[in-house]
Design brief:
368 residues, alpha/beta, Rossmann fold, Dihydrodipicolinate Reductase, domain 2, 9-stranded mixed sheet, 6-stranded parallel sheet, 17 strands, 27% strand
Amino acid sequence: MRELGIGLIGTGFMGRAHALAFRNVSAVFELPFRLTLAALADADPQRARHCAEAWGFAGHHSDWQQLIDDPKVNLVAITTPNHLHYPMAMAALAAGKAVYCEKPLAVNLEQASAMCQAARDAGVVTRVGYNYQHNPMITLAHDLIRDGELGEIISFQGEFSEDFMANPDSPWSWRCDPDHAGGALADLGSHLLAMARYLLGDIEAVCADTQTVHTQRPAGTTQKPINVDDQVHALLRFANGARGTFSSSWLKHGYKNHLSFEISGTRGTLTFDQERLNELRLFRAGQDGFQRLLAGPDLPGYAAFSPAPGHQLGYNELKTLEVHDLLMALAGSHQGGTDFEQAWAVERLATAIRLAAHERRWVRLEEV
């Protein structure tokens, strides 16, 4: 069995989630590789050493380029702030290594396009961390729509809201810098855009409005201006003829992970909320009320973690399912997941939404 060395850059929340997924995937799936946690990198040498030891990585670096150059690393996982995705991914691709990058792909479409072209030129497997799509219930939703259970799709209503920036006294961070991040649209909304495309296909045109509610935030003893969106609302026109609404906010009190959608067709309606990620609600025309569809071992992926329905999967299981699909793609077995090409399409859509909001008009995707 061939050995596959994992190199992880970043030790924050997402770094830990990736480390857990790489450790767990071998325990729940039969793999075509023998995984080794080859190296970890963090700019803080002490933290790099501590996390490498705690998470089971054989080596550690304070310079991410050294991790990419490490001959024991075959797959580079990038979990850093958004502005670092571009230089790290480009260096890894130049080294001919597979790349697993957190979302969003880049801070602007120009960078995303360059990363996409570099991935094509390198001919390596790439994936971007849109892990919510790996929920077995989302696969079920996709299949129900594909198989015509809802009839002809006519509408999509989607929202992804949280409240981690709702307090105006929450301190300024890199997420508030447009050169480093992209506001609620990039941080949360990109997940929903990827989800909408996965379920219903391409979006042809958008009209949008963005707002910065808290125009400054504390940074030490001073206040720094905020130049990214706090909330976004958009109208969507899908290529299949459906119409849709999209909203995203990181100011919405009471919501912790409200990635939700309601999809209606000529024969029924389907709803989902990530805060109840183990169920769907389905209404078929002619029946009384919504039917609750509960996750269970009959759905692909679920049984690897639990043999019984109702015992539920969580966030880290979704990340493990995403890693499993990545590894199967590396083995040459086509699996699901968002590669750099698909992630570029999400960035293009986000760019169109920003343009539509700025120019206060409908924008066709072909313009971007």
